[in-house]
Structure formats: C-alpha cells, structure tokens
Design a protein that fits this description.
The chain is of the alpha+beta class and 127 residues long. The protein is built from 2 helices and 9 strands, in the order E-H-E-E-E-E-E-H-E-E-E. The protein folds into 2 domains: 53 residues, 2,3-Dihydroxybiphenyl 1,2-Dioxygenase, domain 1 (Roll); 49 residues, 2,3-Dihydroxybiphenyl 1,2-Dioxygenase, domain 1, CATH 3.10.180.10. A hairpin with a 4-residue loop joins strand 3 and strand 4. It starts with a strand and ends with a strand.
Length: 127
C-alpha cells in the first residue's frame, strides 16, 4: 500500500495553490468545483509523485473536532482495486469503525469510501 494523497482545507484556495507552486514546484491540475456542495479543490503534484489536495468549502468551521475545518482532513490509501476498497471498508465496518461514505464513484472520478478512523481522523480508501 501507499498513501495516495494528503488533503487540507484552506481559506484562500488560489493563494494556497500559488504558494505550493512557487515554493515547492508543485504542478497544479484543473480545479474541481461541486456547485451543489459549495466545494472546490485542486490536486497538486510533486516531483516524487506525492500529491496534495487543497480544498475550500463554503461552510468551514474553525472548530478542531469538525471534519469541515482548515488544516489536515484525511489520508487516502490506494489499495489497488475496487474489490480491495470494498473488502477493507467491510473489514473496518466489522471492526466497529464508522463508515462515512460507502464505496462509490465520486463526482471527480474516484472509486472510494471514507471511514472515521483512529481518533476521529478520516481515511479514504481508494483504487
């Protein structure tokens, strides 16, 4: 397994993008915008293949125990196949973890699930 990407909410999406491009040579993909949810994001890629998703949402909270807040929001693990996403999600459910979103194809093309895991941290399980 490998970490697929790290994501964080920011107040100023364009300024955050410029920061990572300028100081860390990130390559920026196209903006994803879900108008219904008031959500926007960019994926930034780095030389070694690591990726960071920077995101903004209209209803962010400053409260550190909320999932809609600034800073760290989730880790995503690539597990290789839809079958593995399904199996690991079920295993986590069986072990008592809260499944926040069932395995599905998202609006931006990922097949993933999301689990509220250790200490309330969010983990995405993806292909």
């Amino acid at each position: 397994m490998r970490i697929e990407h790290i994501a964080m909410y920011v107040n100023d999406l364009e300024n955050a993008k410029k920061f990572f491009v300028k100081y860390f040579n990130a390559k920026c993909g196209d903006m994803y915008h879900n108008v219904t949810k008031g959500f926007m994001s960019y994926f930034l890629s780095f030389e070694d293949g690591a990726r960071l998703e920077i995101m903004n949402k209209a209803d962010l909270s400053e409260c550190s125990n909320q999932t809609n807040r600034h800073g760290y929001i989730h880790l995503a693990f690539s597990v290789g196949s839809k079958e593995n996403v399904d199996a690991i999600t079920q295993q986590l459910r069986d072990d008592g973890y809260e499944i926040l979103s069932e395995p599905r194809i998202t609006g931006d093309g990922y097949y993933e699930s999301c689990v509220k895991a250790i200490e309330g941290n969010l983990i995405e399980i993806t292909i």
